[in-house]
Amino acid sequence: MNPYSIIKQRRLTEKSRVLENLQHAKSNPSVAKCQSPKVVFEVDAKANKAEIAAAAEAIYADKNVKVVKVNTITIHPKWRKVRGFEGKTAALKKAVVTFRPGDQVETQV
Q: Which CATH number is 3-99 given?
């Protein structure tokens, strides 16, 4: 299966930026222990953790990275009203991918 059909896009939010920058933070001893780079992706809703790990390694094959751990979060749709009309927000699945300590994953922004 195409790795880009499993991993749709990279999630660039404030919270994902905090996770990415934890490896460089030295503010306190518990934060300084986090040496592994973490990246947040939006993934296919039917993909499992093994498929996500294989797709991340395939996308970053030129960087020679190895996935250590994958955590997934499923966001269910919620009802919202906008200008009197009801509708649902989009459902999505996110994956927090942890790489080996020392691996470099480029930042797009």
A: 3.30.70.330
